[in-house]
Amino acid sequence: MQYAKNILETIGNTPLVKLNKLTKDLPCLVLSKYETFNPGNSTKDRMALKMIEDAEADGRLKPGGTIIEGTSGNTGMGLALAAIVKGYKCIFVISDKQSKEKMDILRAVGAEVVVCPTDVEPTDPRSYYSVSKRLGAETPNSWYVNQYDNPSNAKAHYESTGPEIWKQTDGKITHFVVGVGTGGTISGVGKYLKEQNPDVKIWGIDTYGSVFKKYHETGEFDENEIYPYVTEGIGEDILPENVDFSLIDGFTKVTDKDAAVYTQLLAKEEGMFLGNSAGAAIKGVLQLKEHFTKDDVVVVLFHDHGSRYVGKMFNNEWMREMGYIE
User: Fold this and answer.
1) Is 89 a catalytic residue?
2) What is the pLDDT of residues 171-211, one digit of tens each?
3) Which of 267, 280, 282, 271 is nearest to 314 (CA)?
4) pTM reported for the whole predicted model
5) So what's the pLDDT on residue 72?
6) What integer pLDDT is reported at residue 73 of this predicted model?
7) Of the residues 18, 21, 24, 44, which is catalytic?
8) Contact 53, 88 (CB under 8 A)
9) Contact by Cβ (8 Å): 21, 136
10) Rounded to whole angstroms, how far apart are CA atoms 189 and 159?
């Protein structure tokens, strides 16, 4: 009989799915690494499990412990699934710009959720970085995950996502395009792919209000670039240790409006019911058109599922209020 011993054994081995309508004006083949097939409906399941396993192995996470993390929702979901199977408690700190669905889903899988204001400096004691660190220090028998600087994050993608993409494209991949938040996916996949073929181009999708693109191009961390933005799960107002800028060939920035509109278009044109960062990612691919030729194989990674954005990007009333649609 074929079955997984528990839900964690179903993580990974997600399909590659061709895009057809939205990419019809591009000269190349565009394939999506469709990460919503993971049990927690996002790519973050991979690194959540890896971070937990590595912390168990070296004693940072002890039996019956409490897992504490600041999350935009998806890492929390992955950590919660692993915690249920392995017998840990979870406290997740989330910023108030994240969708209500994400908060509800985390509570549905038994986590305690603490909500913090978005519009404060990372060093502000109210920020979700500061609150999660403080809870980690105050809570007995707890482990603060810190996905931004935790090397197991990128390692998970180096060990699983990168090899899967290489194998699924038969080594023919020429470009990898992905939204950048913690940096684990782009750095882990990028490192693996460039080891197989140094000519593979690695492109990051950034958002306006985030520091990545300018820092990559100039080496300057420009605080004047930082302002609140709507797009979820990508961009940062800090430089996570997991972002290995040396592996990245370039960034393109996508507006909040384009990300939201293309999230809807993926559902309506391709039948792909995906999250907000997927809209940003596919618009980024279209913006990079001049970099592609007819022989190229472009893989774009789609992080998470549309069910987490039903009250926002899939709600036309919200889209009108934001000025994204007429």
Assistant:
1) no
2) 999 999 999 999 999 999 999 999 999 999 999 999 999 99
3) 267
4) 0.95
5) 81
6) 85
7) 44
8) no
9) no
10) 8
